[in-house]
Automatic annotation (TrEMBL):
Component of the cytochrome c oxidase, the last enzyme in the mitochondrial electron transport chain which drives oxidative phosphorylation. The respiratory chain contains 3 multisubunit complexes succinate dehydrogenase (complex II, CII), ubiquinol-cytochrome c oxidoreductase (cytochrome b-c1 complex, complex III, CIII) and cytochrome c oxidase (complex IV, CIV), that cooperate to transfer electrons derived from NADH and succinate to molecular oxygen, creating an electrochemical gradient over the inner membrane that drives transmembrane transport and the ATP synthase. Residues 6-474 form the Cytochrome oxidase subunit I profile domain. It catalyses: 4 Fe(II)-[cytochrome c] + O2 + 8 H(+)(in) = 4 Fe(III)-[cytochrome c] + 2 H2O + 4 H(+)(out). Keywords: Copper, Electron transport, Heme, Iron, Membrane, Metal-binding, Mitochondrion, Mitochondrion inner membrane, Respiratory chain, Transmembrane, Transmembrane helix, Transport. It comes from Kudoa iwatai. One of its GO terms (biological process) is mitochondrial electron transport, cytochrome c to oxygen. This is Cytochrome c oxidase subunit 1.
Amino acid sequence: MNLLFFLPSLVYASDAFPFKLISFSKQNTISAKQVAIGYWRIALLSSIIATTCSGFIRIEISFPQVQSSEQTYFSCITAHGILFIFLVIVPIGQGYLNWWFPGQCGKWDFSLPRINIGSMIGTEISLFLIIGSWLPGGWSCGWTMYPPLSSIQEGNSIDMIISGIHLIGVFGGLSSTNTLITFKQIEYNQTYKELSLFIWSQCVTAILFIGTIPSLALALLGILCDRSLSGSWFDPSGGGDPVSYQILFWFFGHPEVYVVILPSFGVISTLLESQSSLYGREGMIASISCLGILGYLVYGHHMFTVDLEMEVKLLFSSGSMAIAIPTGIKVYSWILSIITKKENLKSFSVPIICFIFTFVGGGLTGIMLSSATADILFHDTYFVIAHFHQVMAISSFLAFSCGIQLLGYKSHSGYLILFTIGTLILFFPLYYAGIIGTPRRIPSMTIESQPFMFLGLIGYFLSISGTIGIMIHL
């Protein structure tokens, strides 16, 4: 019995997933493509739970008369964030990594196939560990787990979730190392400029993850010591500093945005390469490299509300604005590729256009937030919520939906358009809610913000309907 079904078989029957198991190697062993299916199953289970939590949040803030306990509300917010970031979007990218990367490197499988299989199984273990710790009492500290909220919550749920995230970090680091080793042993006689942009995206992603995950591990270890060993790493009463947690967390947190989004960029570029219609290859390679470098240097824009020096704010603000340059190069290349080779991209045009429209719409608001003055006003409002959901989550899903067609499945254009319209109706009103000062993480909304929240609820149901339609028509 394949090891692939060791944990997923507890949740799914072997024929419950639309992709059939295809052996990628000559031997009767688990191949990289089978591992890809395992990652996609992890993402499917996590997305069902996270989307359900999102629906509960939307209903809670849309109807003042429907109020649950604050513990339940904050638990849903925490579960929604942690599952989507660590166990939905990243595993989808890992699936595409396993499906395409070895073949594009001229190999049957990764250089360390057992490490690859173990990373997938370890991610599954962390998924069940996190879900199991959430169900009994929930988490009320938010997905960022800022102290002192994460330090004072009673019970073992926070300890378990920290253990689960540590597992994700360990096995994600092993997978990233395996990716770089496989790339180093590439068997094609090509120059770096001739390599697929998917390979470039995944290698930069691996470097970002390896370089930043120790920072998150150290931050979570400090919380664990404060909780279990009466430490004071982040407790001001014992000489600790909560701001040091934010520095450690966001040194990982902002590069994690590119760990999430760069694989989806690679999928879009691979689609255009497959149709011989990619424009500006050298510029695309340079932009991917610049995003990888700048991703390390702008984490401070998440901390503009902290008492930073003016020079430090100016530095991080300038770096955040500079990220728009390589991103703009990529968008320009994609648009020009569509215009110049539109006949070759007739069947792919709808998902690509939906992706570009959503990504650019959310990215323009990121330029606004790169200003320290504007960020102080918008930081704790729904403006930020709408921004990072559009840029990181929705754009990634639309890009990965383009990759579905390269796997031999046709995504229904009508349902993709319905999903895109639903997400726009969901998040565009939240920008206006943020402009009028509606605070996030608050279960009770003001009368002025109620129309925006109700529109968002309508958009939520439209996007869910589009998602279900896409899954049915695969």
